[in-house]
Amino acid sequence: MEQFDPSAPPPFKIADIRAAIPAHCWVKNPWRSLSYVLRDILVISSLVAIAVFFRNTSWVWPFYWAAQGTMFWAIFVLGHDCGHGSFSDSTNLNSIVGHILHSLILVPYHGWRISHRTHHQNHGHVENDESWVPLTEKNYKTLDAPTKLLRFKVPFPLFAYPLYLWTRSPGKSGSHFNPYSELFAPNERRYIATSTLCWTLMVANLIYLSTIIGPSLLFKLYGVPYFVFVMWLDFVTYLHHHGHEDKLPWYRGKEWSYLRGGLTTIDRDYGMFNNIHHDIGTHVIHHLFPQIPHYHLIEATMAAKPVLGKYYREPKRSGPIPVHLIDNLVKSIKQDHYVSDVGDVVYYQTDYEMIGKKVE
Fold first, then answer.
1. CA–CA separation, 272 vs 71, rounded Å?
2. How far is 248 from 266, CA to CA, in rounded Å?
3. Is the CB of residue 253 less than 8 Å from the CB of residue 344?
4. What is the DSSP string of 280-347?
5. pLDDT digit of tens for each residue in the chain (360 aa)?
């Protein structure tokens, strides 16, 4: 049997995938979208009330941190939908809701929205992608030991997101908070200033709140869940582009196209969390068509699978807790270090010296 080559140009066009998706999957219902916002805010508020009521019961806190951090991640996904315009057809509604949700969890809405748009427009491109972009061998060899440790040793990569917002990835420069960053066009500067102001106001609110309830209680109620949220974000976004059982290609030059880059993304099953974080694991169709609302992604994927054929990699079914994905994460971070400086179709390579393994 001939082995499937995931880097081979697909025998279909993106229009063929689009045509297979039912028309109603493209329809955005702002009331339905807002209902998810209401649901998540009610859960977050209830969790805070429970934690405050039982604040002197030590065993309650770990459950609160896990649950609340997961809910912070859930509202991040809804804000992410606002950024894509899949929340509603109203730019103003998307911007208002996106700013509220993302500012609550210290994400600069427009700054991240624009850099994430760059990620989608260049997914799978070695130089131009924005999220968890691979290092070239030349750039990799310039990293010092502490940087390699932070990038390639679990659990440190799971705390990368706040640093990324301020400095981007190794080999890239700019900040999501600076209107004059190279991330943004001159006509986008006012958007960045607005989001940075909202972020600053949230920080000021947290500082003020700490003077009322005390920094210790604030850290328990907000600080620890924030870091759980960051871990969720880095865990999920990394695994949507890395860690498949078979190595997947990255492209540059004439070999890259929007379709071929999008087909390197990976769907994941997160068990009981699929519904909680709004089916963000249904990622291939989302990457190709980010304007599809999250509540239609599963149906759209099922409709597109006959067209995608072997270019769609069926996710491994998860139990209630997706513990199987930890192995994918650890194995990928351990062996996916850099790609070649040359070639238009490249795959991750391993620095065996760093992991203490001799090459025979």
1. 13
2. 10
3. yes
4. TT-HHHHHH-TTS-GGGHHHHHHHHHHHHGGGS-PPPP--SS-THHHHHHHHHHHH--BB-SS-SEE-
5. 578 999 999 999 999 999 999 999 999 999 999 999 999 999 999 999 999 999 999 999 999 999 999 999 999 999 999 999 999 999 999 999 999 999 999 999 999 999 999 999 999 999 999 989 999 999 999 988 888 888 898 899 999 999 999 998 877 889 999 999 999 999 999 999 999 999 999 999 999 999 999 999 999 999 999 999 999 999 999 999 999 988 899 999 999 999 999 999 999 999 999 999 999 999 999 999 999 999 999 999 999 999 999 999 999 999 999 999 999 999 999 999 999 999 999 999 999 888 776 655
Long-range contacts made by residues 167-176, C-beta under 8 angstroms, separation at least 24? 168/115, 168/130, 169/130, 169/132, 169/133, 170/135, 170/139, 170/143, 171/133, 171/135, 171/136, 171/139, 172/130, 172/133, 175/111, 176/108, 176/111, 176/112, 176/115
Measured in Å, how far apart are the chain's first and last C-alpha atoms?
30
Q: Report helix, strand or coil for 349.
A: strand
Q: State the CB neighbour count (10 A cutoff) for residue 37.
A: 19
If we measure between CA atoms, which residue out of 277, 276, 195, 192 comes closest to residue 233? Answer: 277
pTM: 0.95
Task: Give me the amino acid identity at 51.
Answer: A
Strands (DSSP E) along the chain, which ranges?
250-251, 345-346
